[in-house]
Amino acid sequence: VRVTYPENAMTSASSADCVASASTEYGSDYYAWRAFNLDWANAYGWASKDTDSAPWLQLQMPRALKNISVKLTNRTRSSGVNGPIAGTVLGSNDGSAWTQIGAFSGFDGTTSGGVSGTVACDNVVAYRYVRVAFTEWVGGKGMSVGEMSVTGAVDG
Fold it and tell me: For residues 61 and 118, what is the distance between their CA atoms, to the nearest angstrom?
């Protein structure tokens, strides 16, 4: 059985049976949970602070998933979207010990509201935490994600 998290729109950092967090948050319009509010046409989403040189976005899910797929969508903006180009996907079951389960590069971080890309991971170990650590993004300073979703297989 494959499921996608969050199943319902997040309305705060801890909602819809999930917990969203990030390395930094640019401000109240750009909290981490805004990348999980299922508003694929929003202009905000999550954005890191301009001083964040190693930004990451994370979702703690109610169930551990195998064979994870992470979909990243750019913010909808007429000006620059500062979207992701490259990074890694990490899995954890305690939020502190991380294992790299995927990597990506060549994503389109410029198209307003467009799907930046999807990262397919073939992890056989199920993880409750998924973190995307960004290593390259458009704009040079702070980066952003309009929406992120995590899909994977659950046992039983």
Answer: 18
* CB atoms inside a 10 Å sphere around CB 78: 7
Question: Distance between CA 121 and CA 101 in Å, rounded?
Answer: 6
Q: Backbone phi, then psi, for 77, in 5-degree steps? A: -150, 150
Report the sign of the C-alpha dihedral through residues 40, 129, 137, 23, in that order.
Answer: positive
Token look-up 């301009």 returns 50
| Per-residue pLDDT reduced to its tens digit, 58-91 | 999 999 999 999 999 998 876 677 899 999 999 9
- How is residue 28 written in tokens? 């109240």
Torsions phi, psi for 114 (to 5 deg): -85, 160
